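Hello,

Our lab assistant flagged a job as stuck in the queue for most of the afternoon. It eventually completed. Since we weren't sure the result was trustworthy after the delay, we are filing this so someone can double-check. Below is the sequence as submitted and the structure that was eventually returned. Let us know if re-running is recommended.
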Amino acid sequence: MGDISRDASLDLAEEPKKRSLLVDFFIRLVKEKPLGVVGGLIFLLLLVTGIFANLLAPYGMNEIHLVDRLSPPSAQYLLGTDHMGRDLLSRIIYGARISMYVGLGASALLTITATTIGLVSGFAGGRVDMSIQRFVDAWMCFPGLVILLTVMALLGPGLIQVILVLGIATGIPFSRVVRGAVIGIRENVYIDAAKAIGCSTTEMLTRHILPNIAAPIIIIFTTQCGYMILGEAALSFLGFGIPPPQPSWGGMLSGAGREYMYIAWWMPIWPGLALSIAVYGLNVLGDAARDILDPRLRGGIGRYGGVKVKSHAKK
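-- returned structure --
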């Protein structure tokens, strides 16, 4: 009896404490995903730049210096000026704020749209599921850019319109991912038990299903931030996004950027470089988050919270 109690106390003493999912995520991100850390630093830099743009920018975003128009990079203008004499560094810094608005806002709206449609479709099943999925099929038949340009032509250019169009139009196809996760959770025994004790549909969705599909929802949000910024840049480049004189990176590449690129190479180079770095950082951060959080991948903590199960062999 003494040996049994002694073995039990040893097992309890050696059992590791369960860390929170957020702490375990950051620890594994630093240890296993160095590119993810780089992406996180780029995202943090982009966020800080957007928040404190008024303090970081040496000039106003539309402050004109006609005598210094088309000036190359120098000590006074580190990245040069455009065709109206506006400082490119200041406009790129203010452009980071718009990119963060679009990236975070459109990704959040995308996640809400995909989660809402996927929850209703996957949990209801039957004719409701079939009707919603046929609508999603029809939506996915059209090229994404054609849909975005058509809706933007109807609504008109603007920041709010870009966020709404990108979030909703891209969120509808991603509802398939949430629907698949909901169907997998719906078949578990504890859902039947919740129904047996009289849980309402809202309670089952919020307390039993939604927490168990949090990992794919977080993955959708993190992986799509970069694509939302790229989508805004594409719309602004085509003239359907953020209207001038707002300093959108895509808008800076279009219009005057293309017109003066042969005599002022710095006008398209710096906005394009800022856009590439931002999208790259958010993409590698999203990929790292997917590798760590997705429970279907080997070593993912989305299901087990990173706790390792140890077996103690008795001698």
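-- support follow-up --
The delay was a queue issue, not a problem with the job. The result is valid. The mean pLDDT is 83. The chain has one domain: 20-63+78-293.
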